[in-house]
Structure formats: C-alpha cells, structure tokens
Amino acid sequence: MVFKFIIALVVITRYSSANLNHINVYARNYIGEQNYRTFFSANLKNLNEFSSLTAFNTRIEILQKDAVTNLPNLKELNLGGVRLQSLQEGCFNNLSSLKYLYLPNNKLKLIPARIFNNLTIRMLTLKGNYIQKIGTGAFSDMPSLEKLDLSENRLQNLDPNWFNNTSNLIALNVSANQLVKIEDGAFRNVKSLVNVDLSSNRIKSLNQNCFAGLTKLKLLNLNNNLIEVIEDGTFKDQNGLRALQLFGNRLECVSEDVLSSLRCGSSTFLIMNPIAQECRRRLDRFKKEEPRIIIFY
Ligand SMILES: *[C@@H]1O[C@H](CO)[C@@H](O)[C@H](O)[C@H]1NC(C)=O
Ligand SMILES: *[C@@H]1O[C@H](CO)[C@@H](O)[C@H](O)[C@H]1NC(C)=O
Ligand SMILES: *[C@@H]1O[C@H](CO)[C@@H](O)[C@H](O)[C@H]1NC(C)=O
Ligand SMILES: *[C@@H]1O[C@H](CO)[C@@H](O)[C@H](O)[C@H]1NC(C)=O
Ligand SMILES: *[C@@H]1O[C@H](CO)[C@@H](O)[C@H](O)[C@H]1NC(C)=O
Fold first, then answer.
1. In the record, which residues are listed under signal peptide (predicted)?
2. What pLDDT, in 10s, does the model give residues 133-169?
C-alpha cells in the first residue's frame, strides 16, 4: 500500500495587501518517487505577483520543462540544496524578469547545452554541485550575465564554447575544481572579465596564450595550484592587473618578463613558493626598482 500524499505549506513573508514580494515554499513529501519530482511545477502555477522565491526543505530531483511558469515578475529564484540532479530543456522558460538564479549545493553533474540561453539574469550560481560537463553554448546569449559561480565542482577544463554573446561577464569563479591546465584562448569569448578565481585546482603550468584577450582583468587568483612554470608572455594582455595571487604553488622563480607585466599593477603575491636563492636576489632588485609593487616571497 503506497500512500500518495503531499503537504505543501506556502509561507508568505513581507506581505502587504497591495504587494506580495517574497514567498518561501516549504514542502514535505510523503509520496513515492515519481510524484515529488513534479511537485514544483504542480504547486507554483498562477502565483504571479511576487518577485522572489526560495524553496527549501524539499526535494526537486528533476527541474521539468516549464517548471516555474506564470511568474512574469519573479526576480530571484533560489533552489539551493534541494538535491537537484537534472535540468530539463525548457525548465527556465517564461522567466522574463529573472535576475538572480541560485542553484548551489545540489547534485547536478551535467549542464545541458543552451539551457540558460536568453535568460536576462545577472547572476548565476552553480557552486557546490558535481558538475563534470557543460554543454556547448550553455551560457550563450546571456548579455546581462555579470557573475557566474562554478566553484566546488568537478570540471577538468574550461571551454570557450560555453560562452557566446555573453558580453558583460565580469566575474567568473572556477575555484575548487579539477583543472589541470588552461587551454590557449580559454577565455576568448569572455573578454569582459575583471575578476577570475582559479584557486584550488591542479594547474601545473601557465602557457603564454592561456589568458589571451583578457585585457580588463584586475584580479586573478591562482592560489593553491601546482604551478611550476609561468611562460614568458603569459600576462601580456593584462595591463591593468592589480592582484596576481600565486601563493601555495611550486614556483622556484618568475622571469623578468612576468615581473615586468606587473609594473602597471599595484600588488602581487608570491608567497609560500619554494623560491630559489638566486631568484630571491632578482626579486630583491625588482622590489627596489618598483616600490609600488608589493611582492611577498
Ligand atoms: C512559456 O514559454 C514557451 C516557450 O518559450 C511558450 O511556448 C509558452 O506559451 C509559455 N507559457 C506561458 C504559460 O507563458
Ligand atoms: C534565444 O534567442 C535567439 C534569438 O532570439 C533564438 O534564435 C534562440 O532560439 C533562443 N534560444 C533558446 C534556447 O530559446
Ligand atoms: C546577443 O544577444 C542579444 C540579446 O539576446 C541579441 O539581441 C543579439 O542579437 C545577440 N548577438 C549575437 C551576435 O548573437
Ligand atoms: C556565436 O554566435 C554568432 C552569432 O549568433 C555566430 O555567428 C557564431 O558562429 C557563434 N560562435 C560560436 C563559437 O559559437
Ligand atoms: C570563489 O569560490 C570560492 C569557493 O566557493 C570562495 O571561497 C571564493 O571566495 C570565491 N571567489 C570570489 C572571488 O568570490
């Protein structure tokens, strides 16, 4: 005997008779597998006058096509920690006002091709999933996207084809993944980036074209990787670099070329690297010539 039974409690906060702004959906499911998967779409139709929605204490394993419909005013959707495993094509249809989409701490392994296309969101977080693969054009045609958080996943590479017409992306976080290298031109379709966090990966070397085209970059975090070599010319396009964070790597030295690309920047951190004695002297000299640049080693 299987009980098919749903209790859904919709708690409305910040309610005023004229304007309903925020809604939290708490759900408990005492039902078989199939039913709670469709729960989300079944219960949120026709609530069209609010701007923020957070689901918690529930399970939404599959986000189905047209899952969140008839919410033309929804600005923020938070589906964090709901054990989401897959995103079906069309699951973000009809969210024309959405600006913030949070999907952290779920179980997503795959981000399907083109899934977020045409959403006019500014911020997307996919932090803390199991993402190994991102389909071509997943983040294409998103000219409003400014911040993308892919940290704490299982990505092994960065593919320029994830992006096309994503012309305002400012911050990209791929910290705590499994990157071993940055391919040449990895960022060629996101030249607007200012802040890139690649810390806590397994990157072994930086090749001269890996940051090609990133002329607006100001903050680059490469802490806690396995970097042994930085090729000459690696930072040739980064004239405005302010902070280059490299602590916790395996560098024995950095070349004059790399140092000179930092001249226009204000600070750099080369800390906790096994910098060789001979190199130390060179760095001492550089510090005297360029007192504005802060180097720790
Ligand atoms: C949702 O969007 C799809 C495709 O974008 C459209 O065909 C459908 O009519 C829309 N549904 C509603 C309820 O607006
Ligand atoms: C996004 O918009 C473009 C241009 O309007 C359209 O050609 C494309 O099919 C849309 N993509 C999706 C996935 O809806
Ligand atoms: C980029 O996206 C915008 C909005 O979706 C669209 O109007 C524009 O045509 C797209 N540009 C290209 C080159 O696809
Ligand atoms: C990017 O989009 C434009 C316009 O839609 C298209 O011509 C171009 O081939 C696309 N580039 C990639 C790498 O997908
Ligand atoms: C990137 O993500 C990590 C892990 O989630 C976080 O600790 C870090 O602060 C983020 N970096 C930036 C620049 O926000």
1. 1-18
2. 999 999 999 999 999 999 999 999 999 999 999 999 9
Asked if the 179-297 domain carries CATH number 2.30.110.10, the reply is no
CB of residue 117 inside a 6 A radius of ligand 2: yes
Ligand 1 atom nearest to CA at 70: 13
* Interatomic CA distance for residues 27 and 59, integer angstroms: 8
Do residues 162 and 136 touch, judged by C-beta distance below 8 A? Answer: yes
Give CA–CA dist 123/142, Å, rounded: 10
DSSP 249-286: S--S---HHHHHTTTTSSEEE--SS---HHHHHHHHHH
Helix segments in the chain, DSSP class H:
33-37, 39-44, 256-260, 277-289
- Ligand 2 pocket residue status of 165, Cβ below 6 Å: no
Q: Could you give the CA distance from residue 166 to residue 163 in angstroms, rounded to a whole number? A: 6
